[in-house]
Amino acid sequence: MIKYTVPFLTKLEDLIAESDYTLRYEKGNFKSGYCLLREQKIIIVNKFYTTEGKINALLDILKTLELDTTRFTEKSLKLYEEITQTEVKA
């Protein structure tokens, strides 16, 4: 299910764009590779990460957040359900 490709990364970015959260790629010393500002609904991922690193960071984030799925398209909803129900295997 998880493909470490740019099109899959784009799907994850689209999923986040349909939620209330804003995704930004910036440089920083994040120990986990990302920073999550829950009150402001901003997700910041290290911009120097590889595609695989960005995908893993977004998957970790999506598993910890409870997103409002009412605005999701059918494809995004299916992807979100698959992500939240499966474990990440590298």
Provide the helix percentage: 40-55%
Domain count: the total is 1
Pattern of helices and strands: HEEEHH
Low-confidence residue ranges: none
Number of helices: 3
* Biggest sheet descriptor: 3 strands, mixed
Question: Alpha-carbon distance between the termini?
Answer: 12 Å
Oligomer: single chain
What structural class do the secondary elements suggest?
Answer: alpha+beta
Q: Count the strands?
A: 3
Q: Mean pLDDT, nearest integer?
A: 86
- Beta percentage is 15-25%
Q: What is the gyration radius calculated from CA atoms?
A: 12 Å
What is the overall silhouette?
A: globular
Which strand order spans the largest sheet, edge to edge or round the barrel? Answer: 1-3-2
In short:
It is built from three helices and three strands, in the order αβββαα. By secondary structure, it is α+β, with helices and mostly antiparallel strands. Helix 1 packs parallel to helix 2 and helix 1 packs across helix 3.
Describe the structure.
The protein is α+β, with helices and mostly antiparallel strands and about 90 residues long. It contains three helices and three strands, in the order H-E-E-E-H-H. It is globular and about 35 Å long.
Q: SSE layout and pairings?
A:
Elements: H1 6-17, E1 22-26, E2 34-37, E3 42-46, H2 51-64, H3 74-85
Parallel strand pairs: 1-3
Antiparallel strand pairs: 2-3
Helix pairs in contact: 1-2, 1-3
